[in-house]
Protein 1
Amino acid sequence: MMKKTIINNATVVNNGESHVGSLLVNGDRIERIVMGGVIEPEGEGYMVVDATGMYLLPGVIDDHVHFREPGMTAKADMHTESMAAAAGGVTSVLDMPNVVPQTTTVANWCERMEIAKGRMHVNYAFFLGATNDNLDEIMAMPSEEYPGVKLFMGSSTGNMLVDRREMLEGLFAKSPKLIMSHCEDTARINANMKRAQELYGDDPDVTHHAEIRDAEACWQSSALAAELAKASGARLHIAHISTERELDLLGGNVTGEACVAHLLYTDEDYARLRGRIKCNPSIKSASDRKALRQALTDGRITCIGTDHAPHLLSEKQGGARTAVSGMPMVQFSLVSMLEMVDEGVLGIERLVQLMCHNPADIFGIKERGYIQEGMKADLVLVSREEVAHTITSKDVLSKCGWSPREGDAMHWKVRSTWVNGNLVWDGHSVDTNVCGEALCFVK
């Protein structure tokens, strides 16, 4: 592996600004940044990249992925999904606890960390999941080693529903870490499903998914979570906000994540893409999508994740009851958002704020998320191509082998991805000899 890399004449996007400049990576660190000039190699052993006309961004930090290992490796695993992440310019991922066995004890968390060593091609961390009776385990976790506590305030994949009021109040009162919540009201969803089955049959068509997991179910659960956070002072991060109304809950110690799928699609897309875009919470109306897109730039949404959740395509068949929820998105999240930059939804500087800076700040990730001298060299080089590339299944590196973005034309391309100074993606293939590191946290 090259020990020193020079990237010359890139448009460096960082801290709300874009300037043409050059950068020297020495080992795993950014050693030198020069704005408006080039850096010449001082001897041999340098990789020199001419990045004229390209954009250099901090590596994307995806705060919400499901890499499915252990327990569900037929559809995804740490090796394949981290390859997809690297190809998409994602250099760090925060993985969720609803695997088999669930990551709800310190022992199970330690086992996942061991599995990840030498198999993850990007940097990684694992949430500890809350249950109705594991507050002692949460209190025992070393706070500098994990990003936060994942709370399912609504049943979803893995059946990790926390529904006891005393546990919720205790968690918000005592959690030493940020709480990241999946908010949907299960009782309302169950009632909606029963009503839909009476109208449409045992397995209502997938086009009814947004009626069953509706906006009110999200609002009721998110409002309760925000109430608990504001009463206790706990830091709450509401995952995958999907409705306009939930945006009113954000501010102070309550932050919110938007996921790429909810920014891309509306409920009108179910007819075309069917179960491929079935996820929890559901993709909702065009007005909800419009509000979410506006919230990217008005400060209410603080970060963009993917909720990358691969399933076999065979599992995505069926209706609102039987088709499983979740989709792979980590490989195409950055280019999808760059296409939205072209559409005028947000600026590229704001994109970097939402996908790189803010996740590092919200979760307290050490030494990552910015292009600064002395920081870890997690970097991605992207370019806008004149001729668009149409995504096919052959492009997909996720183990499940499909993407809802198949058939879509993209002008943006991830040219190179560096993880800790090592080139892991060269625009064509992943160097599987490159492995990421366990992330460290300051709070």
Protein 2
Amino acid sequence: MSTLLRIDSVVKTFPGLTALDKVSLSVDSGEILAVIGHNGSGKSTLVKILAGVYLKDAGQVTLSSSAEHGEEVTEMHFIHQDLALIPELTALENLYLAKGTLAPNDVAAERARARELIGRFGNVFNVDIPVKRLSPGQRAIVAIARALDGWEHPRNVIVLDEPTESLHKSEVDALFQAVRQLAADGAGVIFISHRLDEVLELADRVAVLRDGVKVADEPTASLDHGRLVELITGSSETERAVAERTVSAGAPMLAVTGLRGGGIEHLDLTLRAGEIVGIAGVLGSGREALPTLLFGATPSLADAFELVGRPYDHRFPEESIRRGMAYVPADRVRLGSVREFTARENMTLPELRSLRTRTGSINAAQEREEASRLIDEFQVRPPRREQRFGAFSGGNQQKIMFAKWLRNKPSVLLLEEPTQGVDIGAKAAIYEAVEAAAAAGAAVLVCSSDAKELLRLCQRVIVLRDGVQAEELSGESLTEHHLVLSGYGLKDMEGTA
């Protein structure tokens, strides 16, 4: 085998964060390399560097060019989790659109080419129906076929980023067969996944990233579930939780039974005043869907839903805010703010009634005074209330988001990845704000893929898997090791697999 891709001592930093710290990897022809690690480990940053989205700060990325193979130059191709297909277009149209043409010169030839590419991976399906009518597995095959179209030789590198998230077992089997065929033909494959069973089944070798550092690079044959979990977390199963907390929880602020919708199949949940409850689970577990379901931004059904002791049957964001609920989304720029508005405008936007004069206009002096108070309280830097939101750093944007919602003294605070993309200083300030909100009587729900964050903040953590509650951890069972085991569906508190 020859090396197709070599990554040597790659470094990537962001303000206050080293995302990749001298990471080195290689991928050989015919090899399937799995790259795994927790959220924030550096996997996504590495993919974005390989794809050219980010520029590396140091190090080298080298693709092979070999006279032995007729001066073949290795190319890189990517299959992302969302597949980047246009649902309303057919498989055929998605394939030739990727070539930069709106319509082919020879439709019959393109159709034959599409059927040939898809046929490499099993049964050929109808390439003339909209992609949205295909199964998730068939859509994944279309994305792979599109990536392969135009390969002049098989000695390329293909990166599959969480490709099995929406696939059933039979579709995963078909995809793996396709990936193995690519490797057998001479391609190098980088497989990024949080599903450890799939990693052990498919990969020849596994590289583990933790906090931007490569901590392992070993043949799959030498690994098992327990060893992978230990490498991912950096802890053994005997390690205790970060801290023990005794909280006198008050009355139920949110009580839901039989919640259904989005990625949630069935969930019972009670949040009490003064407590911080975590929601854990791997991508696709339902963790990402839960906050918007509770907030009413995504339609849901429930057998019973009470907010601050009152039934809440018809849920939508405006009414949720009126009833005392607040939601800080993971995507603060797209979903949590108006980028072109100032810090002042963003912070006062959810509740303007208290600022209105008798004539209905906004009391500008009162608004400025309140915005200045919030900026001081949350230590927003620079302390410029009239600066455009988009001009602040990520950490200060998040502080503005917390100021915006905590200004209303919510009864229920829903947090989704609350410290994603912020530096260490901002993270500490946000943790203090979360704990202060709970101490003031709010019930706080923290949905996070960061196990250390959940351990730092929460008294108990509910682990979701496949849209239902898999486990609830608290006390001595609330450790990073146990969170990872439970999230991946591995057994269990005894360390058995």
Protein 3
Amino acid sequence: MNAHPHTPEVEALILQHTALVGHIVRETMSRVPSHVDRDDLTSAGLLALVQAAQAFDSERGVPFNRYAATRIRGAIVDELRSIDWASRSVRRRARELDATRSQLATVLGRPATRAEVADAAGLTVNEVAGNDDDVARAQVLSLHASEDEGIGDTLVGNAPDPQRVLELGERLTYLTEAVAELPDRLRLVVEQYFLNERPMAEIAAILGVGESRISQLRAEALVLLRDALNHELDPDLLTAHGRPDGCATKRREAYFAAVAARHSAGMRRVAVDAATASEPVSASA
């Protein structure tokens, strides 16, 4: 029998499954950037629950919780898309700015300032800063999902694909190792800004530099992390350096090698631990 608006049956379905919205929102919040508003996702999920209760047809043989969960996740994905936290235009400009930074570093023999990047790219300093901030906010999620994947593909449901879980675990392992192998200043910036959520002004005070320098270090670290993951997991996506025999290229390759070595050492430890755990325990006399 079909459910209809404003009936006791509809109200009962909504009340009984309100907790389902909270569960899906919590699940989603663990996989999106921290600036996403929980209340916005909850509102979208509750509205979807109401609509699901009104449209539910029990005669189709689908349990309501499964039907509602699909509608709720779809509404949350739509809400995330509407946020547009990292549009394709933002990512395209970020790639262009990365290429500009690499070219300038080759010519200047040092990392370019934001003003130099802006001048070379034909943009204002504020436009470059705004793009850097947009990318930084989205970076945590973008490190786990390629640009061509939809948001819905990155949100794990109640029964995630085992292969995808393994791939995500491997990517997270490499990401952790890549952060650990960053040069000291870059690692400090990443850990303090992304993990400890400290403002750039505080990090600047720790290092004794200006906030603009912290923003530049953050951008350098994100490029290195992205390239390290691509080097190990998606070599076709790795961007070639402008001067193959230059010092910057050699430093980058040394960083890639350090990440690979750390990963290999970790895998050996896992193998040893697994072998030790599988050894039979001798019975005591």
